[in-house]
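quick one, 487 residues, struct below
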Amino acid sequence: EKILRELVETPCPPDIIGINYYLSTDRFLDQRRKRYPQSSWGGNGRYLYADVEAVRIARSDIKIGIAPRLHDVWQRYHLPVAVTEVHNGCTREEQLRWLIAAHNGAARLREQGAEVRAITVWALIGSVDWNSLLTRRAGHYESGAFHAWRALRPRPTALAKATASLVSSGRFDHPVLDGPGWWHRDMRFYCKPRRSFQKETKMARQLVVTGATGTLGRAVSRICDLRGLAHVLTSRAGLDIAEPKSIAAALDRHRPWAVVNTAGYVRVADAEREPQRCYRENTEGAAELARACARLGIPLLTFSSDLVFDGRLGRPYVESDATCPSCVYGASKAAAERRVLDEHSDALITRTSAFFGPWDKYNFVYQTLCALALGREVSASATCVVSPTYVPDLVTAAFDLLIDGETGIWHLVNQGAVSWSELARLAAIQGGFDPDGVRPEAADATPTSTALASERGEMLPPLGSALERFFRESEVVWMTGNGRPSH
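---
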């Protein structure tokens, strides 16, 4: 009581009030716990309830965002206020949308007479394990205005460009801002609402994604939907990347702000018998698309392969290593890289390796699990080393780089190089199968490793994390010998 009296008698109000506000800050307590994940169940000793993010509740009377909270503080204290941390641990376009929302909300309050002094872009060079409030040492990195995780030097992201533009002019524009943040989209709710709460937005500038029939193209389209990126997914009928007239017509029709090329020839073994077709789809097509995009000033993202290398180097390959393919497929990709950069010096080329995803059956991990589920032995090379890559991680990182305006060649693989037999054993263990069902083969006379590393900065999580999420997120099932699905 003495201390409280002293505070009343000798008040010491702050010169400025700082607010850290996150999308999880506002809470909603609901005694109908079964509507929500068990992880949200709790209580206060008197009542049991679910403690969930208010942003995920479909109620029109809940006002979410920095601006309402700034207004509350200003109305209560009438002291200068500042947003002392603007951060959204999410993908790049969502980070931009959150920053712009904070800036515009603060600006509107200033126009209404509130004394809002500043917003702070923090953490400037990112943070590690902040998603768990440092309660776990998982090495989970979230970039900020700069990406600094295991990079030679901090790399400015699109947030840095946005911050500089807001400081100098009070404005910033990017096509991804045409779409609403996830906190304004109906996908955020725990319970599907009876009516849409999604705000109407202007006609969004869109991406063109080639390769509608391929697993990578479909995955890119799916992730575009998840990230709120307007796009059109084209098949060869709508855009033949090896035909200049088809390319020109499609670009004129869709007027994209960027093109993502996933089309191409993917059957490595068959390429030895069909070199002409392989080169048409992988090399000529990529070059024609790059030429058209360069002419119109359209950014281009295209994908390449670890097979541009022969695996004899003795260490993981980095971006500056000279290509040296040992197969037709690899040679077509190496030629495509050269041709694309000759035609479009600002193109972004991402090399990747042995990718697997949770939405398709056409990858080594899925096929291994199917064989093990049927009680069959799996034979896999013990001498050929690769960098397996999880498709959602690959596409997420590639899109972040595209939005950042990065160019040139980037290596995007999950951290961790393993042989095919080691990958099969890891998948077996995660899937609950006997890893001894995998038989390592050493048929290759000389061990090879096309493992990739990056001298430009690591962008993807470790392989172990990727495999864990594959099993958690997989939407395909592998069949057991009695015909029952295993998952």
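The chain has two domains: 10-187, 205-486.
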